[in-house]
Design a protein that fits this description.
heterotrimer, A mainly alpha, B mainly alpha, C mainly alpha, B: mainly alpha, C: mainly alpha, Helix Hairpins
Chain lengths: 511, 239, 111
Amino acid sequence: MMETRIILLIIVPLGTAFIIPFIDLINAKLRRFFVLLGISIQIFNLTSIVVQYFDQIRDGSLFLQYHLGGWQPPFGINLVMDNLSFLFIAIVTLSLLFIIIYSIGYVGHHEGKFYVLYFIIIAASNGAMLTGDLFNMYVFIELLTIASGALIAFQRSHPGSEAAIKYLFYNIIAGSLIFFGVLLTYFNLGTLTMADVANNFAALESGIQLFITAIFLTALLIKMGVFPFLFWLPKSYDSSPAPVTAVLSGVLSKIYLYLFIRLIWTVIGFETIVALNLNILLIDIALFSSFLGHVFALQANNIKRLLGYSSIGHIGMIFAVIMLNTEAGFYGGILHIIAHMFMKAGLFVACGYLLQYTVSNHYRDFKGVGLRDKPVFIAFIILLLSMIGMPPLLGFASKWFILMAFLEAQSYFGAFIVIFGSLTAVIYYLRYIAKGFEEVRLSEDDLKMEVFNQPLLSVLYREKIVTFITYAYTAVIIIFGFGFRFLNIPLRMSIESIMNVERYIELVLGG
Amino acid sequence: MHKYLKKTLVISVFILTAIALYENFLLVPEYTGLRTGVSDYIISSGLSDTGSLNLITAVLYDYRAFDSLGESTVIFGAVSGIVLILSRKMLPVSSRGLSFIVKRTFGLVTPFIALFSLYVITHGHLSPGGGFQGGVILAVISIIFSIVYGSAFDYRRYSPQVKTAMETMGAFTFLGLGVVGILMEGFFLKNLGFLTARTGTLISAGSIPYVNFGVGIKVGAGLAIIFYSMIQKTFKEDF
Amino acid sequence: MRNNFIFIILFMLGLYALIMKTNLIKNVIGLNIMEASIFFWVIAFSDVGGEVAIHKMGEEFSKFNDPVPQALTLTGIVIGASTAALLLTLIIELNQFTDTIDRDEIEGLNN
C-alpha cells in the first residue's frame, strides 16, 4: 500500500537538521523551539501511522511502501515498512526521543551543531531501516558513521578525538566494503532493489555468493563490534559524552543488528547461508565474542568502558541466538534487543548524571557517587539488576527466552554463555554498587579542583530533565518487565515478516 | 628482529589475502549487466523519461535522486562536524596576500572561474558535469581569495555566515523541490513535468537543472567552509 | 583481468599504508587509496567498450556504457572525500593535545 507518511519520517528530521544552522544565524533562542517542533511532528506522524493501521499491525499484514520519484522498484528507490521495520522504528524513535530530551538538559556548549548531527542520525536511522534498496542503505550507513563520528569528538577533548579517529578508521573501512559488496551484487544481478536481489540471489554460482556474503558480513561485524573487530568499541564508548554513548550503544548497534537481519534473511536468504556452511561458524564467532566481552568486562576499571565491554557480550549473545534461525531464537533475540536498548541507554544516561562531579570514569573515582544523589543511584541499580537478569525486570524475561531458545536448539555452549554472562555481571556490577555507597571524604585539594566547584549542570530545571529521563528509562524497564506479554503480538508478527520472504518479494515487485 | 618478524608476518598475510581476492575475482563473470536489468531500461528510455541528455545525471537526480539527497546530507554533516570540532580556533587575519602581479592576474581570471563553474553546474543535464563538480570549482574561488588576497578580503566578501546561509539555501532547494514533487506530482523528488521544455535546451529536463543549482551552491559553500575551518589557527589563550 | 590485478595491487598498497605506517596522515592516505582502488575497479569493470552514456544532439543512439555504476561511484567519491575531511580535521585537533601524529607515540590510540 502506498503511504506518503513514511517518507515524512525521513524528511522531517532532515529538514530540521537543515534549518538549525540558519536559525542559529538569526536568533539562537529559537533553536530549541524548532528542535521540539521537529520531534513533535515526528511523533505525531508515527502515532498517526499506528492509529490508522492498528488492525494490520495486529494481524501482521502491515506492508506500506513508497516509490521515490514515482519509479517502480527495480528502477528507482523504494521504501518498505513491514512489521519488523515498524517495531524497530517505534522503539528507536522512542529511545531517540528520550535521549534528545536528555540532551536538552545535558548539552551546554555548541548546542546547535549537536542538534544538527543528532537530527541527521534520526533521519539516517529511519532511512536505513525503511529503505528497500541496497545502495540507499549504504548512503544512510555512511550518514550514520559521519554524524556519530563527529559527535564522539563533541567535547573536543584529548581522549574524544582519539576515540573518534579510531572509530572512523574502522567504520570507513566497513563502509567501503559495503560499497564494494553492493556494486558486486549489482554487477552480478543488474539490480539494486533488495526484493529483486533476493529473488535472484540463489541462482548465482556459490563462489560468488560466498564472496558477496563474506564482504557484507565483514562490514557488519566491524559495525556491530563482534569478535575479530571489537577493538574500536570500548574506547569510543568511554570517551564520548553521555547522550552520544547512549545513542551509540542504544540505537546504532541495534540498527546494524536490524540491517544484519534484513541482509541475511531477506536479501541473501538463510538457505544460502546454510548451503555455504556459514551459520555454525557465525554462531561460534558470536558466542566467542560474547565470552570475550564478559571476560574483558571483569578486568575493566572504568565504568563506561565496562558497560562497553558488556555491550559486546550482549550483542554477541543476540547475534548468536538470532543465527539459530528458530522462532524461539528470534523471539528471545528481538526481545533482548528491545531490553538492551533501553537498559544500556538508561545506564549511560544515568552515568552521565552521576559522574558529573567526578574527576574521571575510573573505579576509584566512583567512590561515594551513590550517596550524593540517592534516587538516581537507585534507578541506576535497578537498571544494573536488569542487565544481570533479576526476575521482575525486562532483562530477566529476555534472557530467559534466549536461554530457552539455546536449550531448544541444543546449543549448550550458548546456554552456558548466557548463564556465564549473568554470573560475571553479578561480580562486576556489585563491585561498583558497593563502591558507590562508600563514604567519601574530600580533602582540601579535591575541593579546590575545578570539577567540584563548577558543576556541569548548574541550571536547576536541566537537572530535573536529566533525572526525569533516567527515571523514564527505569520505568520502561519495570513496566515491560511485568508486562512483557504486551510485546508478544508485535514480536510474533515481526518474526513472521522475517520468515516470510516470499511475501516481501511479491508485494514489492508486484505493486 | 622483532620488527622484521612483524613485517614479514603482515606481508605474508597480505599476500594470502591478495591470492584469495584474486581467486574470487576469477569467479566473477564478464560484465553482462547491459543486456539485462536496470541499465538496459535506463539507456533505452532514460532520455524520454527524464529529458536529460546526460544519462548519469538522469540516474543521479531522477532515478536515484534520494541517494543524492543523502549524499549532500553527508557533506552537510561533515561540514557541521568539522566546524564543531575546530570551533575553538580562530582565523588568522591577514590582508597582505601575494604580490601585485599575482593579485592582478587572479583579478582577471577569477570571473572566468566563476563563469566556468556556473557553466558546469547549469549544463549538468547536457554535458559531463553537474552540481557536485561545479560546486567544487565554486569553492576554489574562496580558496583563491584567501591565498592571493589574504583571508581578511575573503572574510569581508563572503563571511562564514553568508556561506552557512548559502549552504542551507542549497540544501533547502533540493528538499523543497522534493516536497513540491509530493504536492504537484504525487511523489517525493519526482521530476516536475510542467518545467520540461524542448530536449537539449538549457532549462529542460524538468527540475534537474534547479536541483543541480541547489547542490552546486551547497557543495561550493560547504567545501569553502571546510577549507576555512582547516586553515584556522589555535591561539594560546583560547576559550 | 588486468583490472583485477591493478585493483588488488592498489588495494593491498592502501592496506599496507593503513596497517604498517605509524603516521596518521599516511594512514588516511592509505584509506583513500583503498577506496580509490574500489572506485577504479567499478569504473573499469563496467566499461564494455561503449561510449560515455551521454546522448548527443542530432546523433543516433549508439552503444553506451552502463550509467548506473558511474553515478553510484560519484556518490561514493563524495562520501569518501567527506569522511577523509572529517578524519583529517580530527587529526589536526589531536595534534594540539599531543604535538605528534605518530600512532605509536599516542597512547590513547592503542588501548
